[in-house]
Write a structure and sequence with these properties.
The chain has about 450 residues and is an alpha/beta fold. It has three domains: about 1-200, 3-Layer(aba) Sandwich (Rossmann fold); about 210-295, N-(1-d-carboxylethyl)-l-norvaline Dehydrogenase, domain 2; about 300-435, NAD(P)-binding Rossmann-like Domain (Rossmann fold, 3-Layer(aba) Sandwich), CATH 3.40.50.720. Helix content is about 45%, strand content about 15%. The protein has helices at about 10-20, 35-40, 50-60, 70-75, 95-110, 125-140, 160-165, 180-185, 205-235, 240-245, 265-280, 285-300, 300-310, 335-345, 360-365, 405-410, 425-430, and strands at about 1-5, 25-30, 65, 80, 115-120, 145-150, 170-175, 200, 320, 350-355, 375, 390, 415, 435. The strands form three sheets. Strands 3-2-1-4-5-6 form a six-stranded parallel sheet, with helices on both faces. A six-stranded parallel sheet has the order 11-10-9-12-13-14. Strand 12 (about 390), helix 16 (about 405-410) and strand 13 form a beta-alpha-beta unit. The longest helix is centred in the middle third of the chain and has 32 residues, at about 205-235. The chain is elongated. The N and C termini lie far apart (about 55 Å). The relative contact order is 0.09. Uridine-5'-diphosphate-xylopyranose binds near residues 154, 214 and 255. Belongs to the UDP-glucose/GDP-mannose dehydrogenase family.
Amino acid sequence: MKITVIGTGYVGLVTGTCLAETGYHVCCLDVDPRKIEILKQGGIPIFEPGLEDMVRRNVAAGRLSFTTDIAESVAFGDVQFIAVGTPPDEDGSADLQYVLAAARNIGRHMTDYKVIVDKSTVPVGTADLVKAAVAETLAERGESLEFSVVSNPEFLKEGAAIDDFMRPDRVVIGVDDERAAAMMRRLYAPFQRNHERVLLMDVRSAELTKYAANAMLATRISFMNELANLAESLGADIEQVRLGMGSDPRIGYHFLYPGVGYGGSCFPKDVKALVQTAKENGHDLRVLSAVEEANDLQKLRLVHKVLARFGDDLSGRRFAMWGLAFKPNTDDMREAPSRVIAEELSRRGAEVVAFDPVATHEAQRVMGDIAHLSFADDMMAALQQADALLIVTEWKMFRAPDLDAVKRALKQPLVFDGRNMYDPAWMREQGFDYFAIGR
Ligand code: NAD
Ligand code: UDX
C-alpha cells in the first residue's frame, strides 16, 4: 500500500513521516514550494521535537519523498490523505476551500481506485462534499472511476506530535464501505498495541468526534481559568484545588491547568466552528459559547494584574515577556495569547521586550505590526531595566532561573506568572512580588 499526503504542515508532515517510519512508501505534496524546498534540502519547515531526524532517516531509506507536482502525487498513493488547513471563515465556520481544492486535484488526475482520507479537522458533512467534488471532476473528464472517502481525524498535540502519532490512544476511522474499511484497518495495523486502537464508526460520527474532543478539552481549561480567578478572590490556591479535583479518576489530572487562555491552531477555531455548525442546525451550544467568551477574557488576565499595579497608563514602562509560542515545544504562533498581551501593553504605551527559545522568528513575522515590541536573544537580556517580568509560555528553561540575576536585571523584583511556574511562598522568600493565576 502506497500513501500520498496532501498538505505538508504540522499534521501532514508528521503523518507522512510516521507512516514512512513504519515501513510505508509515502509521497508528501504541498502547494508551497518554499516548504518543499526546505524538506528536499534535508531541513523541516516547522519546529517539532524529533521530527527532523525522522524525516532524514526515512528520506535516506527511500521511503519518504516530497513534491509540488500534483499529478505525480496523485498517481503515487493508493491512499490519499488530505491534511490541508481548515482556517476559520469570517463567521467562525471552517473554510473548506483547501480541502475541496485537494479533492478536485485528486479527481482531475486519478486513474485507478483511491481511498481519500479527510485527516484535516472538518465539519460534519464534509466527506459528502469531498465525494461530490471528486465525482464532479471525474465527470468533467468523462471518467467514472471508483473511490471511497473516509474520515480519519487527527488527535496529535504539537510538541508531542511524534509520540501521539506513533502511540495513539485511539485511531478514529469513519467509513461507509467495506473495501475502504479493510484498507484503513490494514494501514493502521502497525499502530495497534496491547489492545485494539482502531475505532471504526460511520463517517459523520467520526467527523463530530474530533470537534467534540477538542471542545471538551477547551471547556476544561476555561472552567479551570474561571475557578482560578474565583480562587484568587476567595483566598484559595487553585493548584491545591487542581490536585484535589484531578485525583478523582472520573476527572483526571489532564488539561486542568489554568493559565493565560488556550491558543493554538485547533482549540480556538474548532470551538468556533462547532458553535457555528450547531447554529446552522438550529442548536445554541450555550456552554461552548461561554467557553470561548471566558477564554477571550482570560488572555487579558495578566494585563489586568499589571494595570492593577501600575494604573491604566503604561507609558514609560517596560515589560519583559518570557514565552511567545502558544505552548512550549513548538514555534507555532497561531492564536498565541502572547499576541493579545503584547498588543494590549503596547496600546497602553508600554515597551515590551520578549524572549522565546524557538518561536522568535515566527513571532517577528506575525507580530511585527505591534508598536514598541522588540525581541531579545536570551532570557536574561529581556529583563534589563524592565518594570516587571511576565511569563506567558511555560518553557522548561524558565522553570529554575537564577533568581538573583533576575532580581538584579529588573528595576524591581516583580513577576506576573501566567503559567504558575513557581511556588508563591518560595518567590516571596526570595524577595519577589509574585502574582500568579488563581493562588
Ligand atoms: P498547516 O497550515 O501547518 O499545513 C497545511 C498545509 O497544507 C500548508 O503547508 C499548505 O501550504 C498546504 N496546502 C494547502 N492547500 C493545499 C493543496 N491544495 N494541496 C497541497 N497542499 C496544500 O496546518 P496543520 O496545522 O497541519 O493543520 C492541518 C489540519 O489538521 C487542519 O484542519 C487542523 O485543524 C488539523 N489538525 C491540526 C493539528 C495541529 O496540532 N496543528 C492537530 C490535529 C488536527
Ligand atoms: C490540541 C489537542 O490537544 C490535540 O488533541 C488536537 O489534535 C489539536 O489541538 P495543540 O493545539 O497542539 O493540541 O495543544 P494543546 O496541548 O492541546 O494546548 C492547547 C492550548 O491549551 C495551549 O494554549 C495550552 O497552553 C492550553 N492549555 C492546555 C491550558 O491552558 N491548560 C491545560 O491544562 C492544557
